[in-house]
Write a structure and sequence with these properties.
This protein is mainly alpha-helical. The protein has one domain (2-140): Orthogonal Bundle (Globin-like). The protein has eight helices and no strands. It has helices at 2-23, 27-44, 47-55, 59-66, 83-97, 108-119, 125-133, 137-140. Helix 1 crosses helix 6 and helix 2 packs across helix 6 (108-119). The longest helix has 22 residues, at 2-23. The N and C termini lie far apart (36 Å).
């Protein structure tokens, strides 16, 4: 059991450190950015698609994705059509997540693109395309398949 747990910790560290390196921030800030992007994504895609998404993720990322998720609120999908409004949602989540830590500003766009680029290591192209299809056209261009 200990070996399995160590593998989960190692997977988490690799992902967070890769995001931190790409964003040129500390691992703590990278973790906050991942939470912010995940919280925003789950507001825009269906619960079914969220479950397909997390089914392909390592355990640690599954936990981050579902942290604080209330499925009863999942039917209230955001009706945002503009990319800037979507990126502002990420910023709002980031400010909430990092509130106690004197939030270091990070680019919402760069965070979203970087995190999805790193997620592509775990997700097959079909899943990325399904996720992409649920976003407005202006947001789809941020996800490279």
């Amino acid at each position: 059991m200990q070996g399995e747990f160590q593998k989960f910790v190692q997977d988490a560290n690799i992902f967070i450190n890769d995001v931190a390196e790409d964003l040129k921030v500390t691992p703590k800030i990278a973790h906050q950015a991942v939470k912010s992007v995940f919280y925003t994504v789950r507001e825009f895609i269906t619960p079914e698609e969220s479950l397909h998404l997390i089914s392909q993720l390592p355990l640690f990322l599954k936990a981050v994705y579902v942290d604080g998720w209330k499925l009863s609120h999942s039917s209230n999908y955001k009706n945002i059509q503009e990319k800037d409004d979507f990126l502002n949602e990420i910023t709002l989540h980031y400010n909430r997540v990092a509130k106690a830590d004197d939030a270091t500003p990070v680019s919402s766009r760069l965070s979203f693109e970087t995190i999805f680029d790193n997620l592509s290591k775990y997700l097959d192209d079909g899943e990325l395309e399904h996720i992409r299809a649920q976003f407005p056209k202006s947001v789809k261009e941020l996800i490279q398949v």
